[in-house]
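By convention, the token line describes the chain's fold. To illustrate:
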Amino acid sequence: LPLACQRSLQRFLYPVHVRQRLGLIRDEADEAALPADYEALLVPEDGMLRVVDMVEDELVLSVPVVPMAPGSEAIDAEWVPTQEEQDKASPFAALAALKKQ
């Protein structure tokens, strides 16, 4: 699954491995009869399972909240100010001078 690394902002392929056992049920009351390692899947009233929707749901659930490529290094959180930024007068300098008086 192609994702964008939140550390490096580069694209990487995230491997997705899903092993799932589904128990098809027509009524929620039938869920108790399923073995413990099965997930209940309620069959729609028309009896048509939409496999594309099931796969999409599993892919959405497998995506991490903050995708990070394996081996990626964190970008420095401290930005070194440029000389121009250092030379620029602070807009609050006048207030600081008034406070000292």
Summary: Helices lie at 51-62, 83-87, 93-100. The chain has one domain: 2-74.
